[in-house]
Amino acid sequence: MVQRLDETHDPARRSWVDSANGHFDFPVQNLPLGVFLRGDEPRIGCAIGDHMLDLSAAAGLLDPAWQRALSQPVLNDWLAHSPGDDRALRRRLSALLSDPAQRAAVEPHLVKQADVAMHLPVRIGDYTDFYVGIHHATNIGRQFRPDQPLMPNYKYVPIGYHGRASSVRVSGAPVIRPNGQRKRPDETEPSYGPARRLDYELELGLWIGRGNALGEPVPIGEAAQHIAGYCLLNDWSARDLQAWEYQPLGPFLAKNFLTSVSPWMVTSDALLPFRSAIPERPAGDPAPLPYLDDADDRATGALAITIEASLATAAMRAARTAPHRLSHGEADAAMYWSAAQIVAHHSSNGCNLSPGDLIGTGTLSTANDDGRGSLMEISQGGATPLTLSNGEVRSFLEDGDELILSAWCEAPGAVRIGFGTCSGIVMPAPAT
Ligand code: CA
Fold it and tell me: For 6-16, how does the pLDDT look when each residue is reduced to its tens digit (9 = 90+)?
C-alpha cells in the first residue's frame, strides 16, 4: 500500500520553535523520535530544531490511548502500535509544534538538546546485518577474488547474518579497540593483542515496528509497513580479526565488540517525500524471485538519502580544524535490495521479527571512488594509504580518531530533513 503525503509534509509549514525553521536536520517536517535522559530517567522525546519535546511530560496534549506507550523508557511498546497510530501521532505533534495557539501549552515541555544526553531509543531484542551494498560487496570481493568479486548467490539472495544486540550503543559511546587473535600473512602463528586494522562501516539501520508471529512471513507488499523508521549505523570492524576468524561461519568477534547507532528514529512517514523508484537492475541480472517482487516497492522502494562519513583525528580536534570528509554518496544508488525486500526476505522462512529489532543494510558504497563506505575500500586493504586534509596519513583507524556518520534527504518540493550524526572516538585497547 502506497502512503500519501499529508499536511505534515507541507514545505510551507513552519514551527513556532524558531530554531526548527531552516534547521538542516530537524525542521517541523521531520519529527523523529528518540529517548533522552532527564536526570537518570530515560524519556521519549521528539526532536524539533535545537530542542526536543518531552512526550511523557506533554502526554496530556496527546491521545490518552497513547499515554502508556509514550511514558515508557524505550519506544518498544509504541512501535507495536499500528502504523495508523504512527501517522496520527505525527499529525498531532506537527499541529502542536506549528500552531502558534498551542505554544503556551507546549513550550514548557521543550528541552534543549544540548542540555541532555541521548539514550538508545529501544530495547533491542535482535540485531541483523545485511550486505545489500553491491558496490561494497564488489570492492571487498575484488580484493580476495579478482575474477569473481560477487558470489553467485548475491543477485538472488539478500545476504545477511545475525549480529549481537547487547553491544549496540547510541552515538557517542567510546570505541574501545578490541583485543583479539590476529595473524599477518607473514606470521606463522596468531597472537592475541590489539586489532591493527580497525575500520568503520557506513550503513543505514532499520527499526522494526510491528512484528510478525513465528511461522508467518511478512509478504513483500506489507513489508514497508513493518519498518517504523531509520537511523545511521556504524558496524565497527576489526579487519585483521575478521580475516583470521571468519571462515567457515562468518563474522564474530571482529564485529560484536560494538555497533553504534544515531539516536533519532527518522520515521517512515517523514521519509515519504524522498521515496522514488528502485533503480533498474543492470541488463542480464536476474529478476527478483516473486516473494521479493512487488509493484509498489518497485515504484517507491528507494530512499533518496545522502550519506557521508568524516574523520576528525585527535590533532584535528586539538587544532579545531574541520573533519576530513572520507565519503559522500546516495544510499539508493548503493542498495541492490530495498528495505522492504530485506524485511520480506528476513521473515520469508517464518523467522519472527519483533518491535525494536534492528536491521543494518550493510556498508553502502557508491559506484565511484567518492562514496566508499569503509577504510578497507578507501585504502584498498592498506595498500593505498589516505592522506588527510591536515597531512596525516591513515590506512585504518588510530587511537584518538573520531569517526562521524551523517545523512540527510533532499527532494524537489520538500523541506530537507536529516538524521543527525552517529559518532565515536577510538580508545586504546585494554592491556593484555
Ligand atoms: Ca556490516
Answer: 999 999 999 99
CATH superfamily name and code, 7-119: Fumarylacetoacetase, N-terminal domain (2.30.30.230)
Q: For residue 408, which amino acid is it? A: W
268 CA from centroid of ligand 1 (Å): 22
CATH class held by domain 127-427: alpha beta
pTM over 0.90: yes
User: Which residue ranges make up each domain of the chain?
Assistant: 7-119, 127-427
C-alpha–C-alpha distance, residues 8 and 244, integer Å:
50
Calculate how far, in angstroms, residue 388's C-alpha sits from the geometric centre of ligand 1.
24
* 312 alpha carbon – ligand 1 mean position (Å): 22
Beta bridge partners of 179: 194
Per-residue pLDDT tens over the stretch 240-293:
999 999 999 999 999 999 999 999 999 999 999 999 999 999 999 999 999 999
CA distance 235 to 362: 8
CA of 128 to the centre of ligand 1 (A): 9
The tens digit of pLDDT for each residue in 394-406 reads 999 999 999 999 9
Rounded Cα–Cα distance for residues 356 and 270 (Å)? 18
Q: Cell triple for residue 414? A: 520538500
Residues annotated catalytic, as ranges: 136
